UniProtKB/TrEMBL annotation:
Keywords: Lyase, Metal-binding, Zinc. Transmembrane segments: none annotated. GO terms for molecular function: carbon-sulfur lyase activity; metal ion binding. This is CENP-V/GFA domain-containing protein. Gene3D superfamilies: glutathione-dependent formaldehyde- activating enzyme (gfa). Pfam families: GFA. InterPro entries: CENP-V/GFA, Mss4-like_sf.
Amino acid sequence: MTITGSCMCGGITYAIEADSYLAALCHCTDCQKVIDPALLPISQRRRKNQKINQNQWTGGAFTSNAVVPRTSFKVTKGKPIEKPESPIHLMQTGTPTTYDVTGASGKINKHFFCSTCGSGLYTELEVMPDNTVVKAGGLDGGEANLRGKIDVEFYVKDRPSYLAAVEGAKQEPMFG
Ligand SMILES: [Zn+2]
Ligand SMILES: [Zn+2]
């Protein structure tokens, strides 16, 4: 089946050809951060592989994600553009912008977001080369509910104390 999604302004849409996916919550501190890298000074944006904690993701307590095969995912409106010499690329409307963060593994997590409205869209983790991690909030047609079932929670060591573990979800202290 085709699952579709979009950013808040509608400038970027995407489609996933998959009948099922891994539903994952992530409580890592990167997933909680709020500052949009587009707002950082240019000098900071261009510093390669910088270790900062100001990553534009959700500003929420965690992210909810549909982990899908990378081959099943495609951007259908707005096309990602890569410029390897810079970790942050401000592109025209309708093009996902990417931002690289070095994860706890030492590998790169590449985040794609809309530079117009700021919606986080999806992440490509170097440690998961065969998958795309789609931010569930962007999914259309009620799919953001992740079909009411969470398979796994990552980084539960960083989960806020006011949130309980999801019943039946595998609990990973960090990432797998
Ligand atoms: Zn947008
Ligand atoms: Zn995370």
